[in-house]
């Protein structure tokens, strides 16, 4: 066990010990109330214990049982000895009660043992058992001289009401009263030992699980920061370019994936747009995303065609890819002056295109294999001519695979329908409309994939 584990366990059980002290004090208030009722019943002759003895013993027993409440308030916080003081008060209070009512307080001796279980310590439960046996001995044999008369133990009395204790009475008490009660207490103790030990182990396991959850949460936060920091986030992105308008949004999921988008100028007349989705979750996916995004941008800015870039990036991602991660990606390059557009697809969701006077339709062009999936894969480019007013919407599968509480998918048809109902909006307003519709659809259901979208609109220069 490491030092961190020891510190963690100490902190857990210190906190539990404080709660157990408070719980024990509350339980003993209830026991003290019962002792008070016994005292009152004896005062009205329900029991036949000498009132003088009861008037001395019962206040002491009640005071001992209430003392833990005062100790908790006065000492407060965590003091290692507090639980021993509380248990000592418990045992002494039960001892005095048992001396007065030897015949009726057998079950009362279970009280200290049961309270000790809440400390989740076999050692403390063992200490409590030993103390209970010792003071039970004192109570039983002391009860021969004081307290409620037990005709089964006491065989004779003198005329002056003086109790006669003989050797045979002591032996009888030992055989038929003391040993059976001790054996009963000891026989029940394994249950308390097992309960204390099992609960202690469960508490350790729970804390370890919490530590693991915190570690995973921290890892996901790092992954989210990596993911978000790599994406263009300043809009409008090209305020000085009237030929086009572009906007993008990405909402990380509860379990961080590897979605990313990018857009950048290759030169003054060419704009590259990329959207991709890395397999896997967490930090590994985020790091793989950083590599893929960097490779695509670097090779594209080196003057290669989109297809050539994907071929090269695919081969580089396949190298030393022992975990088998891959990327679905789509990239397009817009020649700003002519609105000529070329694109390449590596297993990604088809984008939606709206011509100036038409509606949004899916671009079902040839799609190649995913990046990082197989070496020497070839990719084909597709070319098209865009005109003023044309709009292109890119997205990842987190959009179409968003699910509601009934596990229904958002779907491609709903996405297209929402887009066609939102014609005329700017790219940022368009994506906001889609996001709002997704939120309405899922209705609070947790999403486990990133929701990423990019919108590009061609305008007159």
Automatic annotation (TrEMBL):
<keyword id="KW-1133">Transmembrane helix</keyword>
<feature type="domain" description="PPM-type phosphatase">
    <location>
        <begin position="241"/>
        <end position="458"/>
    </location>
</feature>
<keyword id="KW-0812">Transmembrane</keyword>
<keyword id="KW-0378">Hydrolase</keyword>
<feature type="transmembrane region" description="Helical">
    <location>
        <begin position="23"/>
        <end position="41"/>
    </location>
</feature>
<dbReference type="InterPro" id="IPR052016">
    <property type="entry name" value="Bact_Sigma-Reg"/>
</dbReference>
<keyword id="KW-0472">Membrane</keyword>
<feature type="transmembrane region" description="Helical">
    <location>
        <begin position="127"/>
        <end position="148"/>
    </location>
</feature>
<feature type="transmembrane region" description="Helical">
    <location>
        <begin position="53"/>
        <end position="71"/>
    </location>
</feature>
<dbReference type="GO" id="GO:0016791">
    <property type="term" value="F:phosphatase activity"/>
</dbReference>
<protein>
    <submittedName>
        <fullName>SpoIIE family protein phosphatase</fullName>
    </submittedName>
</protein>
<feature type="coiled-coil region">
    <location>
        <begin position="196"/>
        <end position="223"/>
    </location>
</feature>
<dbReference type="Pfam" id="PF07228">
    <property type="entry name" value="SpoIIE"/>
</dbReference>
<feature type="transmembrane region" description="Helical">
    <location>
        <begin position="91"/>
        <end position="115"/>
    </location>
</feature>
<dbReference type="InterPro" id="IPR001932">
    <property type="entry name" value="PPM-type_phosphatase-like_dom"/>
</dbReference>
<feature type="transmembrane region" description="Helical">
    <location>
        <begin position="178"/>
        <end position="196"/>
    </location>
</feature>
<dbReference type="InterPro" id="IPR036457">
    <property type="entry name" value="PPM-type-like_dom_sf"/>
</dbReference>
<keyword id="KW-0175">Coiled coil</keyword>
């Amino acid at each position: 066990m490491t030092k961190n584990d020891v510190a963690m366990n100490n902190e857990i059980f210190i906190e539990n010990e404080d709660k157990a002290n408070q719980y024990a004090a509350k339980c003993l208030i209830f026991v003290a109330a019962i002792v008070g009722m016994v005292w009152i019943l004896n005062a009205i002759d329900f029991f036949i214990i000498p009132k003088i003895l009861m008037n001395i013993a019962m206040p002491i027993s009640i005071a001992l049982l209430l003392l833990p409440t005062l100790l908790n308030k006065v000492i407060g916080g965590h003091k290692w000895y507090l639980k021993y003081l509380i248990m000592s008060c418990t045992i002494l209070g039960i001892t005095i009660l048992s001396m007065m009512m030897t015949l009726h307080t057998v079950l009362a001796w279970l009280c200290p043992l049961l309270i000790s279980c809440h400390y989740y310590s076999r050692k403390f439960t063992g200490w409590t058992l030993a103390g209970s046996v010792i003071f039970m001995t004192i109570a039983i044999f002391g009860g021969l001289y004081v307290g409620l008369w037990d005709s089964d133990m006491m065989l004779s009395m003198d005329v002056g009401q003086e109790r006669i204790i003989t050797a045979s009475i002591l032996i009888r008490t030992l055989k038929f009263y003391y040993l059976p009660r001790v054996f009963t207490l000891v026989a029940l103790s394994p249950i308390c030992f097992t309960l204390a030990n099992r609960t202690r182990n469960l508490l350790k396991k729970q804390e370890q699980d919490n530590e693991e959850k915190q570690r995973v949460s921290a890892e996901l936060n790092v992954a989210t920061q990596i993911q978000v920091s790599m994406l263009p986030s300043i809009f409008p992105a090209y305020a000085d370019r009237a030929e086009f308008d572009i906007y993008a949004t990405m909402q990380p999921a509860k379990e961080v994936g590897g979605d990313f988008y990018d857009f950048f100028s290759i030169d003054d007349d060419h704009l590259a747009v990329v959207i991709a989705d890395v397999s896997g979750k967490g930090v590994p996916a985020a790091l793989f995303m950083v590599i893929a995004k960097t490779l695509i941008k670097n090779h594209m800015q080196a003057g290669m065609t989109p297809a050539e870039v994907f071929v090269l990036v695919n081969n580089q991602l396949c190298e030393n890819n022992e975990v088998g991660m891959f990327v679905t990606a789509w990239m397009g390059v817009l020649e700003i002056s002519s609105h000529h557009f070329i694109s390449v697809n590596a297993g990604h969701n088809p984008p939606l295109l709206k011509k100036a006077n038409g509606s949004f339709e899916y671009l079902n062009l040839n799609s190649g294999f995913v990046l990082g999936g197989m070496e020497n894969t070839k990719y084909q480019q597709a070319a098209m001519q865009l005109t003023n007013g044309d709009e292109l919407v890119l997205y990842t599968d987190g959009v179409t695979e968003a699910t509601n509480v009934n596990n229904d998918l958002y779907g491609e048809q709903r996405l297209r329908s929402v887009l066609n109902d939102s014609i005329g909006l700017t790219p940022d307003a368009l994506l906001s409309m889609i996001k709002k519709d997704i939120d309405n659809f899922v209705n609070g259901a947790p999403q486990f994939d990133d929701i990423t979208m990019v919108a590009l609109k061609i305008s007159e220069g």
